[in-house]
């Protein structure tokens, strides 16, 4: 007999999953391999940045006190006693009205505390004059102004971006401790599924969810392990999921989670004695998404319908895998935008695949096309979800709605800044 399912809210579903997430071990990898990985330890400043007072211009290093009387009527004259470029250190001692010709990035000579730009001087070979005073530390980049030794620059659990790489390089980290990449098994179930390379046959479709999930995992920096396609056969699915659960940190399946005669994932979980966290969520698409776990492995039973599968991954698998790696920001970016079309009501919370665009007048969003669980094209066209709470009255064009942004590493399609 059909077992009734108890639908729970999306937030409750997420919270049940997150309670089961265990932290993965860490590994040390080389700096140049680390972009996109999650830091397993904070990045500490092991020296001041900059490490010394330095010139920010090409010019002359002087003592500010020697410039105080300079004016257009009464110029101050200086004698140049040394010349240094970035990387050089001057050993001269600066006395009254003496200067060192200095280039951008070079360490300030000991007694100097100001830099005069070349353009602010009238100079000859070994001397120059100025017509205005300079304040102490004018045109000087101060030691430690960007970071002080001992500061935590980047928190543990942050994703390594090109900027973080620059910070690591600044402090001489040739290697960095990051969370190991979870190994995630991916299985597509369905007797109707053909390999991508196969011509269509009556009643069959190509497996599009498998490659899609592999790509969603790669976007997170997770290591996918392709388990293949299995027909709707309880034994075959059971063996594959069970074996994968023994070696993977998580197993994601697609298809077979609803109540049909050949939907075997509920039976697979039962046979594995896995604890089912939920099997019905108050959301559209993806209401039949089922998540279970064994002692050490999370089992994501995503729906077979492409849009449901995609949404299920982004809402549930994504934060769990990021949290497993210790990420402090595992959830999708949130925004608000004005909806460009009327949207229809549903008793469950809707996650409509949508196109989000930022205009100078504000952010706009519109559904990305065919809005059904079985749509594949709207996934491709969308870059966000419109989130409409369950039970909302009809949303009218022009109203502000909640938005979740996808794939934030992706840039805008054109240069939109006006100068
Ligand atoms: N009596 C009921 N029927 C259904 C219910 C329900 O509550 N009661 N829920 C519906 C909802 S909602 C959804 S969503 C689907 C979920 O179905 P399953 O997760 O069991 O998935 P399948 O039945 O295996 O497939 C559904 C659909 O997706 C296609 N599919 C499957 N795998 C792939 C793949 N790898 N690539 C592309 N497309 C795939 C499959 O051919 C089906 O068309 O159940 C409803 N039914
Ligand atoms: O799980 Mo279904 O996608 O709610 O439509
Ligand atoms: Mg089904």
TrEMBL record:
GO terms under cellular component: cytosol
Cofactor(s) it depends on: Mg(2+)
Catalysed reaction equations from the record: adenylyl-molybdopterin + molybdate = Mo-molybdopterin + AMP + H(+)
Superkingdom: Bacteria
Top-level EC class: transferase
GO BP term, example: Mo-molybdopterin cofactor biosynthetic process
Gene3D superfamilies with a match to the protein in the record: MoaB/Mog-like domain, MoeA, C-terminal, domain IV, Molybdopterin biosynthesis moea protein, domain 2, Molybdopterin biosynthesis moea protein, domain 3
Signal peptide interval: none
EC number: 2.10.1.1
Keywords: Magnesium, Metal-binding, Molybdenum, Molybdenum cofactor biosynthesis, Transferase
Entry function: Catalyzes the insertion of molybdate into adenylated molybdopterin with the concomitant release of AMP.
NCBIfam families associated with the record: Glp_gephyrin (NF045515), molyb_syn (TIGR00177)
Assigned protein family: Belongs to the MoeA family.
Identification of the protein by name: Molybdopterin molybdenumtransferase
Originating organism: Peribacillus loiseleuriae
Lineage: Bacteria, Bacillati, Bacillota, Bacilli, Bacillales
